[in-house]
Design brief:
Strand content: 15-25%
Oligomer: single chain
Largest sheet: 7 strands, mixed
Number of domains: 2
Number of strands: 13
CATH architecture of the largest domain: 3-Layer(aba) Sandwich
Shape: elongated
Strand order of the largest sheet: 7-6-5-8-11-13-12
Helix content: 40-55%
Mean pLDDT: 93
CATH class of the largest domain: Alpha Beta
Bound molecules: glutamine
Order of helices and strands: HHHHHEEHEEEHEHEEEHHEHEHEE
Distance between the termini: 70 Å
Structural class: alpha/beta
């Protein structure tokens, strides 16, 4: 069968569940993964034949798509900040909003800001920018920072052993050096190290917001990474803010992805903790989504 002809069948099979645009985008994602062809290659090779082995694989993917399983989990991979990432049901599927957070951190922390290898009495001081990502999941934030801030020393914590398996594989695939730690941030009293940047995209969705979450997110993505108690929705922000007061260097920076409905409250929480320059930023959809703040050593 010709691949371009199979496209019609593919659309027919899924048309009751997804809109045309989405089916089209699934089609090209799968063509790239299974047949190694980009959209343009397919256009240039209209006679490309779909052989029996590949057809079997396509059919099994269609069955999975019919259960509303996210395409990223079906294929076991996705792209984040221009790089490949493995994902499974123990990790969130990285969101475009999180790419924006990564972009903000990279822009605000260009490598040129860090002094080149200062030497004191012949001893080399650590001139690397020390970064910690809390609740790393697939490792997408930590690995993208390690990849794009060349003199960074990146650490990442997660409470899920299963997520860290994926994160470590992602660090290897992306040829980056990240130190992963298995721990529950809510139980840590002191990180016992100082950092220049602490970043986190912690769980922040309240139960009252469940109605807004797509059914396939609810059914397949890890609730541990998504949901917080309605009565204490800023739990992670408070805990991480408190740790950042102890473990950020003077003028160190704290970055968060946040619940779009709790921008004001999250800003207030950080200001009450004594952070300065607490800035709320919107994502591409116009929602309050990111916060950056500076640890003021003066206000201790
Ligand atoms: N942004 C994610 C969502 O839309 C939530 C991520 C999180 O809770 N940290 O589902």
């Amino acid at each position: 069968m010709l691949l371009k002809n199979y496209k019609t069948t593919f659309h027919k099979e899924l048309s009751s569940l997804y809109d045309e645009h989405e089916i089209d985008s699934f089609f090209y994602i799968i063509v790239e993964k299974l047949n190694g062809l980009k959209r343009i290659d397919l256009a240039l090779n209209p006679e490309k034949v779909l052989d029996g082995i590949h057809l079997k694989k396509w059919k099994s993917i269609v069955l999975d798509l019919k259960t509303q399983k996210p395409i990223q989990y079906i294929l076991g991979e996705t792209e984040f900040y221009g790089a490949p990432f493995l994902v499974n049901e123990n990790t969130l599927i990285p969101r475009p909003e999180t790419e924006e957070l990564v972009e903000l951190i990279i822009k605000q922390n260009p490598k040129s800001e860090i002094p080149p290898e200062p030497k004191v009495n012949g001893a080399k001081l650590n001139s690397k920018l020390k970064i910690l990502d809390i609740g790393t999941g697939s490792g997408c934030i930590a690995i993208s920072l390690a990849k794009n801030i060349s003199n960074a020393d990146v650490f990442a914590i997660d409470v899920s052993e299963e997520a860290l398996v994926i994160a470590k594989m992602n660090a290897a695939i992306n040829k980056t050096d990240v130190t992963f730690l298995l721990d529950n941030i809510l139980k840590i009293v002191d990180l016992e190290q100082q950092f220049d940047i602490i970043v986190s995209n912690p769980p922040y969705v309240r139960n009252i917001e469940k109605a807004e979450i797509k059914p396939n997110v609810l059914a397949y993505e890890p609730h541990l990474a998504l949901f917080v108690d309605d009565m204490d929705a800023l739990l992670f922000y408070r805990k991480i803010g408190q740790l950042a007061k102890k473990n950020l260097n003077p003028n160190g920076k704290l970055y968060f992805e946040i619940n779009q409905y709790l921008g004001k409250e999250t800003v207030e929480l950080l200001e009450d903790l004594g952070f300065k320059n607490v800035e709320l930023k919107k994502d591409i959809y116009g929602n309050d989504r990111m916060i950056s703040a500076i640890h003021s050593a003066m206000l201790q």
